[in-house]
Amino acid sequence: MSSSDPRAAGRRFLVILFAGLTLMLGGVITATALVDPTGLLVGAGWSPGLCVPGIKDPGSSAFTDARIRLYQPREIFVGSSRVMRGFDPDSLAGPGSQTAMNLGFSGATMADVDVIVRNAVANAPVERVWIGLDFGAFVTTERNRHPATTTIRLASGRNEALAMGLLSPQAQQATLKVLLHPASCQVPPVDARGFANPAAAPLARIDPAILPNPTLRARMRAPWHRTPTDRKNLYAGELARFTRLMAELKRRNIAVILFVGPTHPAYDSLVAEAGLTRFRVRWRADVARIAREQGAVLVPADRSDFLATLPGLPANCDATPADCAFYDATHFRPFVGTAIIREGRRRSGSPTDPR
Asked: What is the pLDDT of residue 20?
């Protein structure tokens, strides 16, 4: 055997390895094109592939910038998964519904809301901002866990959407999730504009709210555990961040509707167990004060009588409003979101269009 044989064998190995990786990458890209887990490809003009159009993996904000630049919304909803799950397309009946986007995502903190809103008003003709305020976002130990980022930035929003939706690692990872959990292929949790898909949780079936067991209750309380000094400093910093954001939106003459979402009694008991009930009352007063000072509309959907006076409860809701209105201890159903939108429009003097 000649001395060149090992080198030749090595080259053959590299060629085979490269060819294999190329085929694998091509397969992943092809699968991403067919699945479109982000909803960006169809939104940018591609024909639907194997799956129903929509966002199959809504838990990440990695595509938020691309969606904003693609759809150019005039009205946005921002907040945690309570916002993402609490509003569906039917909530937005009216001429302005096609220019609205839901940018809520799981675990959003006040820092996330700040980044997303500022990016949206800088990259789209936003006229109205709805912000779902969560007490936990002002006292949690976790900050900016899901920053809104765009890994591929192009001059055209449509081209950027195509690139992000097909070539980004996040899109390809989301494709693998869909392949492992194919139910989201036919019933995406949210539509391309981020609103809850009614088919994913039809009102024809109202199940009792799923309440946390002791282990989950402890896990939900854990981010709130702070020393009094640390909590005071954290709260002051998040409140200042919120105030600056409100002032910036006021300066830009952008309408703001704030809402404090209703909470299930199980969540209220968690706050009490953490010793934060009085702190929550203070937060609620601070939010109302800032709303007045900055000229924002505030919808007090957390009032004790809000759920009891909801118009149009589902016909199959034969339990208490709290049992019908919530999926679990924190997430309210879209018919509650419809009531929040109705009240926000009434208080802002704009029953349909953003402005």
From this structure: 41
Backbone angles phi, psi at 77, to 5 degrees: -115, 130
Residue with tokens 């926000």: 344
What's the pLDDT at 94? 59
The three-state secondary structure class of 110 is helix
Q: For the chain, first and last CA: distance in Å?
A: 82
pLDDT over threshold 70, residue 205: no
Which band of pLDDT confidence, cut at 50, 70 and 90, is reported for residue 152? Answer: low
Helix axes 157-167, 64-71, angle to 10 degrees: 150
Report the amino acid identity of residue 240: A
Residue 141 has pLDDT above 80, yes or no: no
Burial class of residue 176, CB neighbours in 10 A (0-12, 13-18, 19+): middle
By C-alpha distance, which of 58, 96, 105 is closest to 257?
Answer: 96
Residue pointed to by tokens 């002051």 = 236
3-state secondary structure of 257: strand
More confident residue, 7 or 126: 126
- 8 Å CB contact between 125 and 213: no
- Euclidean distance between CA atoms 227 and 17, whole angstroms: 55
Q: What's the pLDDT band for 240 if we cut at 50, 70, 90?
A: very high
Tokens of 250: 């006021």
**223, 242, 222: which is closest to 141 by C-alpha?**
223
Residue 149's pLDDT band, with cuts at 50, 70 and 90, is low
Most confident of 4-8, 116-120, 229-233: 116-120
Instruction: For 258, list phi and psi in degrees, rounded to 5.
Output: -95, 145
Full strand arrangement of the beta sheet holding 297-299: 100-102, 75-78, 128-133, 255-260, 297-299
Residues 6+ apart with CB under 8 A from 177: 37, 56, 57
Question: CA-CA distance, 281 to 181, in Å (whole number)?
Answer: 41
Q: CA of 282: how far to CAs of 177, 205, 277, 315, in Å?
A: 41, 38, 9, 37
β-strand partners of 101: 76
Contact, 72 vs 157, CB < 8 A?
Answer: yes
Tokens representing residue 19 in the block: 């060819």
Q: Tell if the pTM clears 0.70, that is, is over it.
A: yes
